[in-house]
Write a sequence for this structure.
């Protein structure tokens, strides 16, 4: 049965590829293909799970493909199937088939009809890959695909300001969450001295043997995983992004933020539970986070004025309870709770337009003011304070902005003296000096050599900070992103003996995508004369094909799994020592911020209301 697992990945991928080839005008063909692929997957999964249960429900593991292998590192694709996988896959296929049917009529004659179904099939492929993953590397590929699919579906109405702005906010937080997974993967390499599989994580003796002598690393990995799960599942203090994500079409809100994508944090916690189940502090922290989220989200949901936000906060509250159940070790209850919550929220979101129209009619004809109730437990002042806090969503978004985005923008703004000419004047001499130092490093004191990796990683971090805050030249922002990866490569070159082929594997994808993106910027400048990053320009309106072309280049420079850079990132992390926390933090931050900066360049140039006033312009706020 192991060999059959790969077909549950191949089928959605083939469906996505074929959907790209169907002309946009053939709505029926696009929707029927989407439904046919997902429904076939559902039937196949039900039959497969039935025979799997009959055969004793044994855990299945398939080491599918070794992509890169060096002396101390192996990057391989691994598939894994157990009860968690079975529940998530069947529920995912069931709900996606329902959404495909619903969307066929809901989005009829919509301008982005084909684009919507393309993105849903791409998401479905990434979802199946993440759920079937047997190791962190495979999981991270699906994790990234789901992240970019979320961005594209929230920004589905790309000619409007608010959907695009909120899509970028959500993607930025997703990338922050990716730091947790990246650092967990790095630390696990040093803890186990190999690319660990989830099958090995279920071996208590194997895990306990390694944790006994490396307690702190085990604690660090568990916290990183919990942080990644908290971001993906919108737990406190990252809960504000979920209602913002509802700017997309109702069907995408249902499948992403009501049922499947928002429960991926739960999946990560369930999958890695055998690793951290004996770390009492981590279990308490996860339980407290879930409890706080559940209480706060329930209060915020009570005062929301639109139905989508009410459902979003209701879902967050229930997910908080599921985190508590996982912390208590009630995995079966957590799976049952996930199933019920996913089905309920999907139903609520799909019927919400009808419910709102009915309620408006009822209010119009049969409005009766509700009587004010007084509580004998709480004073009126305390109740009013909670009400105001709930209206302001406990200032979660302001706190994020104050401690995360404003400092990043302020640091980037302090580098305004950098322009293209100065960047090259700094980069070329220092980089050449670094290569010379590397060639003659035996003559240089070891204390200096040990600190050089941090210096070069810091240069890379400075470059991406400037790119993130750049508001004028897209050429400067793009160049800084590409050059930051060269600083990272130099940092790793000094850090440990690394083969030239490994660096070439990492830099080849960046270089090709960087050159393609730069040529695309030159062509766009020829077409539009003046392009800046101080506002959304909306050039996808007139150049939709060009928009897709540049998006692929942007994904390439951000390390998305379409180039060798994605493998190279994990490969370079294997050369960072277990005690080099500063270097690991700087490099992972470079990866994350460069990803945000790259998508920001794409969003500013191609999404949002069109800059030309002869085109229709939608209101900034919905």
């Amino acid at each position: 049965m192991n060999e059959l697992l790969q077909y549950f990945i191949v089928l959605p991928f083939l469906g996505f590829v074929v959907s790209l080839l169907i002309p946009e005008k053939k709505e029926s063909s696009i929707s029927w293909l989407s439904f046919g692929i997902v429904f076939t997957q559902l039937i196949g999964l039900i039959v497969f799970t039935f025979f799997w249960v009959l055969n004793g429900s044994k855990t299945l593991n398939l080491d599918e493909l070794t992509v890169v292998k060096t002396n101390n590192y192996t990057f391989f694709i691994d598939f894994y199937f157990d009860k968690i996988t079975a529940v998530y896959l069947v529920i995912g296929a069931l709900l996606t088939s329902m959404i495909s049917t619903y969307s066929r009529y809901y989005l009829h004659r919509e301008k982005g009809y084909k684009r919507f179904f393309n993105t849903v099939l791409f998401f479905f492929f990434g979802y199946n890959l993440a759920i079937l993953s047997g190791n962190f590397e495979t999981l991270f590929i699906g994790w990234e695909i789901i992240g970019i699919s979320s961005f594209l579906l929230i920004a589905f109405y790309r000619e409007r300001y608010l959907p695009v702005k909120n899509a970028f906010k959500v993607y930025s937080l997703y990338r922050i969450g990716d730091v947790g997974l990246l650092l967990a993967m790095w630390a696990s390499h040093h803890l186990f001295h190999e690319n660990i599989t989830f099958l090995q994580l279920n071996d208590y003796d194997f895990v306990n043997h390694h944790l006994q002598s490396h307690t702190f690393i085990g604690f660090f990995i568990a916290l990183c995983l919990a942080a990644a799960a908290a971001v993906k599942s919108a737990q406190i203090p990252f809960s504000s992004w979920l209602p913002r994500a509802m700017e997309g079409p109702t069907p995408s809100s249902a499948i992403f933020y009501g049922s499947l994508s928002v429960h991926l944090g739960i999946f990560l916690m369930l999958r890695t539970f055998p690793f951290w189940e004996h770390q009492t502090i981590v279990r308490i922290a996860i339980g407290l986070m879930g409890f706080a989220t559940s209480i706060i989200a329930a209060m915020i949901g009570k005062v929301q004025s639109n139905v989508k936000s009410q459902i979003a906060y209701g879902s967050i509250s229930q997910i908080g309870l599921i985190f508590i159940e996982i912390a208590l070790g009630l995995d079966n209850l957590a799976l049952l709770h996930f199933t019920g919550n996913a089905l309920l929220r999907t139903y609520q979101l799909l019927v919400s337009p009808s419910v709102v129209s009915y309620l408006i009619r009822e209010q119009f004809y049969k409005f009766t003011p509700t009587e004010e109730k007084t509580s004998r437990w709480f004073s009126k002042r305390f109740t009013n304070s909670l009400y105001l806090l709930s209206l302001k969503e406990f200032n979660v978004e302001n706190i994020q902005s104050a401690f995360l985005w404003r400092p990043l923008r302020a640091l980037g703004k302090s580098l305004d003296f950098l322009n293209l000419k100065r960047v090259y004047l700094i980069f070329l001499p220092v980089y050449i000096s670094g290569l010379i130092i590397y060639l003659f490093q035996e003559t240089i004191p070891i204390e200096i050599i040990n600190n050089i990796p941090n210096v070069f990683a810091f240069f890379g971090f400075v470059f991406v900070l400037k790119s993130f805050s750049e508001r004028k030249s897209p050429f400067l922002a793009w160049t800084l992103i590409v050059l930051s990866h060269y600083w990272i490569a130099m940092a790793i070159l000094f850090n440990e003996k690394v083969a030239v082929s490994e660096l070439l594997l990492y830099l080849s994808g960046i270089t090709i995508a960087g050159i393609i993106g730069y040529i695309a910027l030159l062509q766009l400048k020829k077409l539009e004369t003046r392009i800046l990053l101080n506002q959304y320009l909306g050039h996808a309106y007139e150049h939709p094909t060009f928009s897709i072309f540049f998006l692929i280049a942007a994904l390439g420079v951000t390390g998305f799994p379409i180039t060798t850079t994605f493998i190279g990132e994990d490969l370079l992390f294997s050369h960072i020592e277990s005690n080099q926390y500063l270097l690991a933090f700087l490099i992972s931050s470079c990866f994350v911020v460069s990803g945000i900066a790259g998508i920001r360049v794409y969003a500013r140039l191609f999404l949002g209301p069109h800059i030309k006033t002869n085109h229709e312009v939608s209101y900034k706020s919905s």
